[in-house]
Design a protein that fits this description.
Number of helices: 11
Structural class: alpha/beta
Helix content: 40-55%
Shape: globular
Radius of gyration: 18 Å
Number of strands: 5
């Protein structure tokens, strides 16, 4: 199975790869701190500064940004996120530094102590927002895919980035309820309708649609490639490039 790091390594070169690996390790080392409570509980700590973000971004070749992929279960968040990751890492003239944070995947580790109550969902978003900020600070294009049904929680994620002067784009991965119920890739809608799952988003728990997302893709109307290209076009306009622009994909590449 090909390693996802191979195209990145071959394009970054040895010196840049050393920087990438050290930065990656530092980010992973900070995950435990991200999982802490709401506020800073200790008064005997201080923030330690190192290499400036501008120097990090110059080494990577582009600025960091977080793409917050929100939508109902089954709307296509994971499918589009994986396709976008491939488009950025493997299908450009030079690989981009990308990290994908999948909501389900994180519940096997960082967020394994969280359920799906409103309070746990809020903490889920808080942790992922903080981790996304760390990666964006390092120069990564962060693709964070999670339902995040509450507008206030998504606003918090945006505010975390705004306060750090980091770019943030909300991507509404949209499909009507009847479409996602028909897809039902994990069989969760069927269980929710049967009463086997309580407080399921879209059935007996709310999903508050974004009012003004930077990107809105209808996955019941667009192909995966069209959705990815829509996001790439918006990224081109976000000013993250230091020198280049994204190559658009053809339908037969995905």
């Amino acid at each position: 199975k090909p390693c996802w790091l191979k195209p990145l390594c071959s394009n970054l070169g040895f010196q840049n790869m050393r920087w990438f690996l050290s930065t990656f390790a530092a980010i992973l080392g900070g995950l435990a701190a991200v999982a802490c409570g709401e506020g800073v509980k200790s008064d005997n700590i201080r923030f330690h500064s190192g290499i400036s973000r501008e120097e990090k971004w110059k080494t990577v070749g582009h600025r960091g940004i977080t793409l917050w992929m929100t939508g109902l279960s089954g709307s296509g968040k994971s499918t589009i996120s994986v396709a976008l990751e491939h488009a950025l890492v493997s299908m450009q003239p030079r690989a981009y530094f990308v990290y994908r944070l999948d909501g389900d995947n994180l519940r096997f580790g960082l967020n394994r102590d969280l359920g799906f109550s409103q309070e746990d969902r809020k903490e889920n978003v808080r942790r992922i927002a903080e981790v996304s900020k760390l990666f964006a600070e390092a120069g990564a294009i962060v693709i964070a895919g999670l339902i995040s049904p509450y507008a206030a929680d998504r606003a918090y994620a945006r505010e975390v980035h705004k306060n750090a002067s980091l770019p943030f784009m909300e991507v509404f991965v949209d499909a009507p309820l009847n479409v996602v119920e028909e897809r039902d890739p994990k069989g969760l809608y069927k269980k929710a309708r049967a009463g086997e799952i309580k407080h399921f988003t879209g059935i007996d728990a709310p999903y508050e649609k974004p009012n003004d997302p930077e990107v809105h893709v209808r996955t019941d109307m667009l192909t995966v490639a069209q959705c990815v290209n829509t996001i790439l076009a918006q990224l081109d306009g976000a000013g993250i490039h230091l020198q280049r622009t994204f190559r658009q994909l053809s339908e037969d590449e995905l």
